[in-house]
Amino acid sequence: MRRAIDAFLVPSEDLQRKMRNCGLKATLLKHYVDTARYSPVRTYPGDVRLLFVGRMNEGKGVDVLLKAFKKVLAEFPGASLDLIGEDEKEQTFERHAHSLNITERVVFHGLVPHEAIPDFYALASVVILPASWIENSPLVILEAMASGRPVVAGRIGGIPEIVIDGETGLLCSPGDPDDLSSKLLRLLRDRELAGKMGMSGRERVEKHFSLDEHIKGYFEILKKASVAK
After folding, report:
1. Strand, helix or coil at 9?
2. Rounded Cα distance, 59 and 7, in Å
3. Chain segment 24-49, per-residue pLDDT in tens
4. How far apart are CA 29 and CA 214, in angstroms?
5. Can you give the C-alpha Rg of the chain in angstroms?
6. Which residues pair with 172 in a beta bridge?
7. 20 to 30 A Cα–Cα from 13, which one of 56, 74, 104, 163?
8. Residues in contact with 122: Cβ distance below 8 Å, sequence separation at least 6, in sequence order
9. Relative orientation angle of helices 139-146 and 191-208, to the nearest 10 degrees
10. CA–CA separation, 67 and 71 (whole Å)
11. Cα–Cα distance for residue pair 7/38, rounded to 1 Å
């Protein structure tokens, strides 16, 4: 089967390296995001609202996020945390929030229609993906950046290829609530910095993760494959 395949398309350099180490012809084709759908809101939110979007499990770092959020509340008691996604642990995280005594400031939205997600990005101060397992190219991060929002995400897998640390957001150590909370507080204390990172993220998406760039890359791959034959 390997001989019949010209290229395995992968969305991150991290996965490309791993597949090539296994002897597979992995070719990089970055994900894209609809930059028209996720328009940036240039006015940075006045309220402190943190946002997580994704499957709710330990691998995504939800347990770490809840612990970090408790530390954020010590400085910003009016902050809120929106969690969008299915709780794969059957309300385990709701019980965790209750044990941390932060339930009044955390909203578990469950599954939300995709067309409603842009509104959540627009209201968010920071979008968070504190992954502790390997992520390739999370669309949530691209959507947040397209919305002009700074991102705090785990330094793992292909995430550092998207989030430029200190420029479009901040990277944190996986599984470390102290590091996560310090990165969140840095952005929440400096709204000007957070706003600049959000706009830098939008520019990065337009340049490297647009549909036009994706299509261009796809046709380049097809052209090389046809020449090789």
Report:
1. strand
2. 29
3. 888 898 999 999 899 887 666 778 99
4. 7
5. 19
6. 154
7. 56
8. 41, 147
9. 110
10. 7
11. 31
Residues 6 or more apart from 116 whose CB is under 8 A from it?
none
Q: Rounded distance, CA 149 to CA 198, Å?
A: 4
Distances (CA, A) of 96 to 60, 70, 117, 191: 15, 11, 25, 29
Indicate the residue type of 88.
Answer: E
pTM of the model: 0.91
Please give the torsion angle defined by the CA atoms of residues 19, 21, 24 and 30, in that order, rounded to the nearest 10 degrees.
40
Specify the residue for token string 């209201």. Answer: 123
Start-to-end Cα distance in the chain: 16
What CA dihedral angle connects 51, 150, 35 and 14, to 10 degrees? -90
- Residue with tokens 């842009």, as numbered in its chain: 118
What whole-number distance in Å separates Cα of residue 98 and Cα of residue 225? 55
Each residue of 123-152: pLDDT tens digit? 999 999 999 988 989 999 999 999 999 999
How is residue 67 written in tokens? 């612990």
- 71-116 pLDDT, tens digit per residue, is 999 999 999 999 999 877 667 899 999 999 999 999 999 999 999 9
Bridge partners (DSSP) of residue 126 are: 50
